[in-house]
Amino acid sequence: MNASYRHFGAGLVLLSLLAGVSCQEEYLPIEAAIEIPEAPKETLCSVKDHGAVGDGDTYDTAAIQAAIDDCAKHPEGGVVIFEENGRYHSAQIVVKNGVRLRLPKTTTLLAGIKREDYPKIYDDWYFILFSECTNCGIEGEGRVDGQGSLWVYGGTAEQKAVTNWDDASCTMPKQCRPHLIGVKASSLVTIEGMELYDAVHWTVHIEHSETVAVNNCNIWGDPLIPNSAGIVIDGSKRVYLGENTISTADNAITVRTPQASHGMELLLVDGGILQSRSSAIQIGHESRAMFSSLAFQNISIVQSHRGIAVALRDEGSMEGLQFTNITVETFFYERAWLGGAEPIHITALPRSVNTEVGTISDVRFQNVTCTAEAGIVVAGSVDATIEGLVLENVGIELVQQTDYAGGFLDYRPGVRGVVDDVQTSAIFIEFANHISLNTVEVVWGKPARPEWSQALEITPRTVHALHVTELFVHDESAHPHGREDQGGSARATMMAWVRRIENNLRSSNKAFLGLEANAASGVLGRRAASSASVIIIVLVAVVFMVFVVSGIVGHFDMRAKRHARTAEEAKFEKVAQA
User: Fold this and answer.
1) Following DSSP, what letter does each residue of 437-491 receive, concatenated?
2) Which strand (E) or helix (H) includes residue 298?
3) Residues with Cβ within 8 Å of residue 166, at least 6 apart in sequence
4) I need a labelling partner for 347 at 20 to 30 A (CA). Which of 21, 86, 192, 540 fits?
């Protein structure tokens, strides 16, 4: 059985501690060194034995589903296996309890694009669906191809036009297309090592589920297809995203609570490379329930329109958000895509004039390096201030990289919309309380954009309890040279960024180890505890988690599952040139 829960379990224990225990502001040097016993022999169910052809033209839906049903009959479930070099064309596939799909590196699943390939109701439009499924998943190094290119019928150089089905069950006419993979009301689900390619809508949708891991996947989307997001997580608990590479048009990672009955709790995103024409990381936008204990670490964001977005627009609240060891590169795209080249964008604004907005509190950015065409934006509102924001060891270098017009604040979605004709400050703050800037560096690069203004801008009478320690400002924009040496700065080439990212990312076997437990008086601090006490608690919890998951997982070396970097760089080159 799939063994990615070894580090996953340890990380969830540490995430649990984030919600309730704190210690010194140091990384916890904890190694989850306990080995999980080998799983019993797997039951294998071959799609070929059930009549699959795998020629890329014949629909193999019945054969694949029959193999799944066969495996599901066994008490311990089983693994559905596909032949190497096969191209399996299929309508919707429904995975059942205890069943995992395993695709070799040379194997492709092709998603059907006909209306009859999917169920009657929009909510069930997924090519691969895990619904009320326990201990199930998909693994290997094969490809799941959404065939998004077959949906395109025109458009512009900035955004493609795609077909949408005319269906009464779909209330959003511009998004009436199927998702690639859905995890709905399920638990103990893993998506491991896969290449998820060319989705026409969301690539992975995790909804109302618990204990879900997406590890070491490459998600590649057409950079011009709207709403083709990477991973969308709705109201779930205990989700781990580890060392994924995501390049999409819409948000690379989206975390939402569209229903008041389902909050978002305990999310760890550890490692990976993210690229988006919208936001690389989007938290909120739809925010009707609580968000708590969300941690993002060791991530590289490249060539995105907006880096990290925290957007509260509804009655839900957010607390305990942590961003550590992250590099961000942002620059302008066309305004059809949300964002304005901001590396960090935190807003608490009403969606409409009648909307009640919750609160954003206890948010920490630590060891974050930004290169951008616009600055950091922190904007609450009269009835929804932002409380307890820490920027510690944060650097931002502003460098002109495109010819798109700037000089605006993008508050979308919401009643404020886009505000034009404004100056761009490196850090802009309004309607916020208890803000701490500790060791923050601003570099004005060259050449300068005409709208650039001051390093720190505070809207009068809306910001209270601002604490600034060591704010450094360097202005290089007046130096003669201009664009010719700009290649050695932020823009460079995608290949150079990939190499830089590769050097900076820590090895995958340290996933979850060293999550920061902040001081009781700091962000995420709930009660004081000594470092020794925390270590004892973690080790006991790790042992407990190991016994819980030992019956369903086996040992797995994450490094052995990683794709060759050369292939990955080639794909980045393709995306960068698109």
Assistant:
1) EEEEEEEE-SSPPTTB--SEEE-TTTEEEEEEEEEEEEE-TTSTTGGGGGGGSSS
2) strand 291-304
3) 176
4) 21
Contact 342, 278 (CB under 8 A): no
Asked if residue 492 belongs to a domain, the reply is: no
Residue entry with tokens 């650097």: 395
**Token digits of residue 193:** 């090592």
For the whole model, what pTM was predicted? 0.80
DSSP β-ladder status, 318-330 and 291-304: parallel
For the domain that residue 101 is a member of, what is the CATH number?
Answer: 2.160.20.10
C-alpha dist (Å) from residue 342 to 225, 261, 305, 308, 407: 22, 32, 7, 8, 12
DSSP class of residue 377 equals: E
**Nearest residue to 510 (alpha-carbon basis) of 31, 28, 190, 36:** 31
> Tens of pLDDT along the chain (578 residues)?
444 444 455 455 445 444 443 333 433 332 333 354 565 678 999 999 999 999 999 999 999 999 999 999 999 999 999 999 999 999 999 999 999 999 999 999 999 999 999 999 999 999 999 999 999 999 999 999 999 999 999 999 889 999 999 999 999 999 999 999 999 999 999 999 999 999 999 999 999 999 999 999 999 999 999 999 999 999 999 999 999 999 999 999 999 999 999 999 999 999 999 999 999 999 999 999 999 999 999 999 999 999 999 999 999 999 999 999 999 999 999 888 888 999 999 999 999 888 899 999 999 999 999 999 999 999 999 888 899 999 999 999 999 999 999 999 998 888 888 889 899 999 999 999 999 999 999 999 988 899 999 999 999 889 999 999 999 999 876 533 333 333 333 333 333 433 433 343 333 323 333 333 332 333 333 223 333 333 333 343 443 443 334 443 343 343 333 344 344 444 444 444 44
Does residue 157 lie in a domain region?
Answer: yes
Residue 137 domain boundaries: 43-228
Beta bridge partners of residue 73, listed in sequence order: none
With contact defined as beta carbons under 8 Å apart, do 252 and 283 qualify? Answer: no
**What element of type H or E holds 12?**
helix 5-20
Is-contact 548 9, C-beta < 8 A? Answer: yes
Tokens representing residue 227 in the block: 């709403």
Closest by Cα among 202, 194, 68 to 136: 68
149 within domain boundaries: yes
Q: How far apart are CA 85 and CA 54, in angstroms?
A: 8
Total structural domains within the chain: 1
Whole-number Å distance between alpha carbons of 333 and 35: 47
The first and second tokens of residue 512, run together, are: 């979850």
For residue 196, the cross-strand partners are 144, 219
Whole-angstrom distance, CA of residue 508 vs CA of residue 500: 17
Residue type present at position 424: T
277 domain-assigned: no
